[in-house]
Specification:
Strand content: 25-35%
Radius of gyration: 19 Å
Structural class: alpha+beta
Order of helices and strands: EEEHH
Number of helices: 2
Largest sheet: 3 strands, antiparallel
Mean pLDDT: 87
Helix content: 25-40%
Number of strands: 3
Number of domains: 1
Low-confidence stretches: none
Distance between the termini: 37 Å
Strand order of the largest sheet: 1-2-3
Length: about 80
Amino acid sequence: MFIRKLKSKNGKTYIQVVDKSSGHYKVLKSFGSFSSDSEKTILIDKAQKWINQFTGNQEIDFTNSNEQVQKLFDSITGLNRVGF
């Protein structure tokens, strides 16, 4: 699954989320067209957020990394050693 920028004959560029399975491209969602760089970044951000929600990916915010690491360690309830 990836973000595709598709240029049409009328000069517009469209942002789409596309999946390539078994050699065929399948458009999962289209986010519209853009005419400026600011609109382009907004549409690409929307598409990336949609991909993350669709696939269930979670992002970790590293702006407050010490707090995030502490929350991660606090959430660990048990540790089991498996194997050697």
